[in-house]
Write a structure and sequence with these properties.
Elements (H helix, E strand, L loop, with lengths): L5 H19 L8 H10 L3 H11 L2 H19 L4 H8 L3 H13 L2 H10 L2
Helix pairs in contact: 4-6
Length: 119
């Protein structure tokens, strides 16, 4: 069993106390992912969705998301090696490895569902 550093525990308690105090005064420190998902789902048109993503993500971030989506699609297709994907689509090996590891660690059911969603 690892030994916990008392300084770390003390700092963690201080941070948690600050979060509680800030919440009591209406200040939210951490974004709520569910709120983001709810906003995306509520978009009534492609135009509104584009507007929301342009607000939330920089151009580089949008390109990174698009690249990661493409990597998942290519890995699921299984036709190209990781090195071929990196070369052909100008994606870093690190990104491809993260996506590959994520796919390897998911259940077969989830992998099949993801595969269907990305077609």
């Amino acid at each position: 069993m690892p030994v916990k550093n008392n300084n770390f525990i003390s700092i963690k308690k201080q941070v948690n106390c600050r979060r509680v105090l800030l919440r009591e005064y209406g200040v939210v420190m951490r974004p709520d992912w569910q709120q983001v998902l709810n906003k995306i789902i509520a978009m009534e048109s492609e135009e509104n969705l584009i507007c929301l993503f342009e607000l939330l993500l920089t151009e580089d971030e949008r390109q990174a998301v698009a690249g990661r989506l493409r990597v998942f699609q290519l890995l699921l297709d299984g036709e190209l090696s990781q090195r071929q994907i990196a070369a052909d689509y100008e994606v870093s090996i690190a990104t491809i490895t993260r996506c590959s590891n994520y796919l390897k660690n998911m259940s077969p059911e989830l992998r099949q569902r993801i595969n269907q969603l990305l077609k």
